[in-house]
Amino acid sequence: MSNIRVSIVEDDSPTLQLLAGWFHGVEGFECLGQHSSAESALAQLPREKPDIVLMDINLPRMKGVECVRLLRPLLPETQFIMLTVYEDSDHIFNALSAGAIGYLLKQTPRDELLAAIRDVQAGGAYMTGSIARKVFQYFQSPPRRVQNDSGLTARERQVLELLARGYLYKEISEALGICAPTVNSHIRHIYDKMHVQSRGQAVAKYANLVENEKKR
Question: What is the pTM for the complete model shown?
Fold first, then answer.
């Protein structure tokens, strides 16, 4: 099995060096690049083509969320994990809407960070526990309470809710009793109907539907 290739975007030099050092000598990982600004990331990452990008939010000049938004079309196979000190809902859902698939706080321990990267590379989503709770609160109501403004079928809404909870495609298949190709087909239809390009964008958009319904 090939290594998971990781690039890091972080403007604080000691933090950048610390994170890069976490991958040194760890079987299954390779640190491709270290970038101290969004501008450097935009210039270099399309050539590096990493599997995973660890992205800080509070970068100088261009912020990390906007950097992810611009990189997503250039790196459709790359997954983005935000690594930040911010844990408010606005930052979380802005990052998900931009295309991030993971959201971790900077105090995340090394082993948890490595596990998060493995999960994301395997097709899942990963969030620090406190962040996950903020996201899951948007999904407490049964799907039937959400107006079907996006035209999703009942099965597609079930798949989307499991996506939001971080289920891998295989786990969705097992939970719903459907085959993997059917899961992939539902996800493609979800993306098309919701006009999104990633799990994070779909989750953020669906969360807004749920929240708006609760306010009615």
Answer: 0.68
CATH number of domain containing 104:
3.40.50.2300
Instruction: Assess whether 70 and 114 both reside in one domain.
Output: yes
CA of 149: how far to CAs of 127, 152, 165, 180, 190, in Å?
27, 8, 21, 26, 12
Of 54-63, 103-112, 197-206, the range with the lowest mean pLDDT is 197-206
Question: Predicted confidence band at 170 (pLDDT cuts at 50, 70, 90)?
Answer: confident
Q: What is the pLDDT of residue 141?
A: 46
Taking CB atoms within 8 Å and a gap of at least 24, the contacts of 25-32 are 26/114, 28/1, 28/3, 28/4, 28/118, 29/3, 29/4, 29/114, 29/117, 30/3, 30/4, 30/5, 30/6, 31/6, 31/7, 32/5, 32/6, 32/7
- Identify whether residues 85 and 179 lie together within a single domain: no
High-pLDDT (> 90) share of the chain, %: 40
Could you list the residue range(s) of the whole structural domain that residue 205 is in? 140-215
Q: Are 35 and 50 in contact (CB under 8 A)?
A: no
Q: Say how many residues make up the chain.
A: 216
pLDDT recorded at residue 197: 76
